[in-house]
Target: Transcriptional regulator
Amino acid sequence: MVEATSEIASEDSAEAFAEGAITLWSNLLTLIGTHLRDSGMSRAEVLEMLTMLKETNDVTIRSPKARASASRHLMAVYRVLGDA
Model:
């Protein structure tokens, strides 16, 4: 029973770390995208970069759960910058 509890705690810790990293990453993308837009880059160029990033994530992130979380966060950034 102790091993099962330890494994669950370890998985929770790994999931919490991954979620924190993905959230930080999406916040950074929002800041970078906003800066690029403010510096004169077209909306289409910024959104194209985000689309390429999503395609790269889909291929390189092994965990389906982390890939889905990254995709949701990236779509939120895409919407924010698309409306800006």
